């Protein structure tokens, strides 16, 4: 029987959900983006900083190499949190952290010949067993249990012959979401790892197709008939909603599929923007899509105060017209706190950043203007367990 040739940990959840998504194709879709460039920069810095400190990682050079200098605060905020979190994890599992490595590569071969290989962000081991960490830089927390378990399986395989490690004590696999400051931990014993590898082997032999929210990460998505059919069905269902034909549950079930349509629309607009760089686009009915440039100005509040008074604005009018971003104020507080500990290998002491931000909010409380914005998010329902 033919089978999928190679499985990487980052694709494990998708392949288990839709086995055919892992099969090779002639023109795979490239998933690179500005967000992935930021993630790549964070991982490249942490590969060095986790063992030798942030300065040794030359973060400015790394960010330039990835073209993300504009996001330096964002990148370094995640890096500093990861270093602090790593120290806490190692303190919690000292018997698993005698030896440590970053970007540890591993490879397993399943009984049917399928290769499982990948690079663990952080690997440690000792007499109490093995520990792996997967740094996450995404904006949305997702369910990546299969990816985490695949890293654990690779780590266990790589250390199977290490005399220091007792395989019976399993692998502590930790997923850390650096933007959200959240984490998930799972202890995987040898039986759990064997069961997971068996599931991957079954998927590697299957050609089943099951489109879903994982389609957005599939390199085959542009040639998948099942996905095209699902998108058409989604559009039809949304049209039915417009006529009031969907109940509340059916409406909610369309949410993940609607995100896929949003991604397609975003990609289409990006393609139009790129095409306009070479000139106007002409529609078949004679209309023209042209590139338009508009100016957006902001006011330097410090310089503007006397100028606004000179044109007759009163104090209350100036206050009404001037907005200070609380988020940017707290970012500045964070930067000041981090600057105090630049030369400290341990980074900012645990809790100090939170206390500084809380103090800033307390001081600013009399000046805060509150507005409530309604947005949407997907959360776990009753009976669902976290990873």
Unreliable spans are: none
Q: Which secondary-structure class do the elements indicate?
A: alpha/beta
Rough shape?
Answer: globular
The share of residues in extended strands comes to 5-15%
Number of domains: 3
Any idea of the CATH class of the largest domain?
Alpha Beta
Helical residues, percent: 40-55%
- Written as H for each helix and E for each strand, in order along the chain, the element string is EHHHHEEEHEEHHHHEEHHHH
Which value, in Å, is the CA radius of gyration? 25 Å
The count of β-strands is 8
**DSSP helical segment count:** 13
User: Which topology of the largest domain does CATH recognise?
Assistant: Lambda Exonuclease, Chain A
Report how far apart the termini are.
34 Å
Describe the structure.
This protein has 387 residues and is α/β, with parallel strands linked by helices. It folds into three domains: 6-204, Lambda Exonuclease, Chain A; 224-276, no CATH class; 322-369, no CATH class. Helices cover 45% and strands 13% of the residues. The chain has helices spanning 12-17, 34-52, 59-66, 72-92, 145-158, 190-204, 225-242, 248-253, 255-276, 301-310, 315-321, 326-340, 352-364; strands at residues 6-7, 99-109, 115-126, 129-136, 171-177, 182-188, 281-282, 288-289. The strands form two sheets. Strands 1, 2, 3, 4, 5 and 6 form a six-stranded mixed sheet that branches. Helix 2 runs antiparallel to helix 3 (59-66), helix 2 packs across helix 4 (72-92) and helix 12 (326-340) packs antiparallel against helix 13 (352-364). The longest helix is centred in the last third of the chain and has 22 residues, at 255-276. It is globular. The mean pLDDT is 87.
